[in-house]
């Protein structure tokens, strides 16, 4: 028989000889090669599946568990500090001199179309000043915290309380944010890690990086009514306030901008500052640290050496720089309505009036009921987040449309989409 060798296999008259040792050896080698190739392909396929599952898991955590992809801005500050006017101007709504005071938590939204894509921003305004700060639990949740920025509004027409107000609201925002961040870190650690990276990268090479208490949730300090401040006080006093504000903002990693709804430049500055956070716009307007102009300072662009120390720093003892700056400002500027925002109404029984007391009691009951609803909603969201074990209907956060009750009146009943 004529043996033919083709492709390394022994054939006899065109037929493979199963008894040929060469054939048996080649067959075994081929079998081993096929097994090796199969194993390699399985490993590659497994790796690809793992990568895809990782991506799907992140998407599931972000979407199925209710992590909001829409941007949110929360405005806080003292009563009548100008929050409503700044929001209206940002949304290009009319600004009225007699705008109705916000009495609890108000919600509205704005949209912008760019490159045929609609971008939406949800805006919360906390009314009522310090007495209603507990309501921040509603917008600052684990489901929205990664896409949220907070605007602390200070009133430059009453600068004497600016530093005290700023420190109070930074503390309150940190406290409420921390609860949401801890829940986010526990359930969606990758999103939490991304927040940490975003917050810290601007200080990686900063000289003051070890002295700054960075906030993972961006804080924008909006100093309203700059038009009044600019024309009412002498340059030396304005410089002291600007330095004090810069110190506190830099120490806490906050943006700082002077705003006004009546002047073009301050309006453009604060709108650009907010837009940079909510529309992922990395473009920066010019940084301005001149105390005779509207301050415009992005987090990470200031430094303590440029700000300097407050007067009396050499003899301060255990007094912190923050307290020194606060004392200086309170001496420089009149403090009309001092501590107005933190003062409770006291013993109203001394001034009882039946109809007024009945209405007050009704409003107090409505407010307490609203606070309870917020707490129940947060517990419900937390249970859903912890119970979610995989894709499907189980573990999904079902968001129902709910109006925001403010002082007994129902505001616009359009909730943010999750």
UniProtKB/TrEMBL annotation:
<feature type="coiled-coil region">
    <location>
        <begin position="348"/>
        <end position="383"/>
    </location>
</feature>
<comment type="similarity">
    <text>Belongs to the dynein light intermediate chain family.</text>
</comment>
<keyword id="KW-0217">Developmental protein</keyword>
<keyword id="KW-0206">Cytoskeleton</keyword>
<dbReference type="GO" id="GO:0005930">
    <property type="term" value="C:axoneme"/>
</dbReference>
<keyword id="KW-0966">Cell projection</keyword>
<keyword id="KW-0505">Motor protein</keyword>
<dbReference type="GO" id="GO:0035721">
    <property type="term" value="P:intraciliary retrograde transport"/>
</dbReference>
<keyword id="KW-0243">Dynein</keyword>
<feature type="region of interest" description="Disordered">
    <location>
        <begin position="1"/>
        <end position="21"/>
    </location>
</feature>
<dbReference type="GO" id="GO:0045504">
    <property type="term" value="F:dynein heavy chain binding"/>
</dbReference>
<dbReference type="InterPro" id="IPR027417">
    <property type="entry name" value="P-loop_NTPase"/>
</dbReference>
<protein>
    <recommendedName>
        <fullName>Cytoplasmic dynein 2 light intermediate chain 1</fullName>
    </recommendedName>
</protein>
<dbReference type="InterPro" id="IPR022780">
    <property type="entry name" value="Dynein_light_int_chain"/>
</dbReference>
<dbReference type="GO" id="GO:0005813">
    <property type="term" value="C:centrosome"/>
</dbReference>
<dbReference type="GO" id="GO:0036064">
    <property type="term" value="C:ciliary basal body"/>
</dbReference>
<keyword id="KW-0175">Coiled coil</keyword>
<dbReference type="Pfam" id="PF05783">
    <property type="entry name" value="DLIC"/>
</dbReference>
<keyword id="KW-0969">Cilium</keyword>
<dbReference type="GO" id="GO:0005868">
    <property type="term" value="C:cytoplasmic dynein complex"/>
</dbReference>
<dbReference type="GO" id="GO:0035735">
    <property type="term" value="P:intraciliary transport involved in cilium assembly"/>
</dbReference>
<keyword id="KW-0493">Microtubule</keyword>
<dbReference type="GO" id="GO:0005874">
    <property type="term" value="C:microtubule"/>
</dbReference>
<keyword id="KW-0963">Cytoplasm</keyword>
<keyword id="KW-0970">Cilium biogenesis/degradation</keyword>
<dbReference type="InterPro" id="IPR040045">
    <property type="entry name" value="DYNC2LI1"/>
</dbReference>
């Amino acid at each position: 028989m004529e043996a033919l060798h083709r492709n390394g296999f022994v054939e006899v008259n065109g037929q493979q000889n199963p008894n040929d040792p060469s054939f048996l050896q080649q067959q075994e080698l081929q079998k081993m090669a096929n097994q090796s190739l199969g194993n390699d392909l399985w490993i590659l396929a497994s790796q690809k599946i793992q990568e895809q599952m990782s991506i799907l898991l992140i998407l599931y955590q972000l979407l199925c568990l209710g992590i909001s992809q829409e941007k949110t801005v929360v405005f806080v500050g003292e009563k009548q500090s100008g929050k409503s006017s700044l929001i209206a101007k940002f949304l290009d709504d009319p600004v009225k001199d007699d705008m109705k005071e916000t009495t609890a938590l108000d919600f509205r939204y704005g949209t912008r179309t760019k490159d045929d894509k609609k971008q939406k921003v949800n805006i919360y305004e906390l009314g009522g000043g310090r007495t209603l700060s507990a309501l921040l639990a509603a917008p600052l949740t684990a489901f929205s915290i990664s896409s949220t920025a907070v605007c602390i509004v200070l009133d430059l027409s009453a600068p004497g309380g600016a530093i005290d107000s700023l420190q109070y609201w930074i503390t309150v925002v940190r406290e409420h944010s921390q609860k949401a961040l801890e829940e986010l870190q526990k359930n969606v650690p990758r999103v939490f890690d991304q927040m940490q990276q975003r917050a810290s990268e601007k200080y990686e090479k900063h000289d003051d990086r070890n002295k700054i208490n960075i906030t993972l949730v961006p804080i924008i300090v909006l100093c309203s009514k700059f038009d009044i401040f600019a024309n009412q006080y002498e340059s030396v006093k304005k410089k002291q306030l600007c330095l004090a504000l810069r110190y506190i903002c830099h120490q806490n990693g906050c943006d700082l901008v002077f705003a006004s709804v009546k002047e073009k430049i301050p309006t453009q500055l604060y709108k650009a500052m907010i837009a940079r956070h909510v529309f992922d716009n990395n473009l920066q307007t010019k940084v301005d640290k001149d105390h005779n102009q509207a301050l415009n300072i992005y987090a990470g662009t200031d430094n303590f050496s440029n700000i300097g120390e407050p007067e009396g720093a050499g003899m301060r003892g255990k007094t912190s720089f923050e307290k020194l700056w606060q004392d200086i400002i309170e001496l420089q500027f009149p403090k009309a309505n001092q501590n107005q925002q933190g003062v409770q109404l006291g013993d109203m029984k001394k001034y009882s009036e039946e109809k007024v007391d009945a209405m007050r009691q009704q409003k107090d009951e409505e407010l307490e009921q609203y606070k309870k609803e917020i707490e129940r909603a947060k517990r419900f969201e937390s249970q859903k987040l912890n119970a979610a074990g995989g894709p499907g209907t189980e573990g999904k956060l079902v968001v129902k449309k709910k109006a925001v009750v403010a002082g007994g009146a129902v505001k616009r009943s359009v909730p943010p989409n999750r």
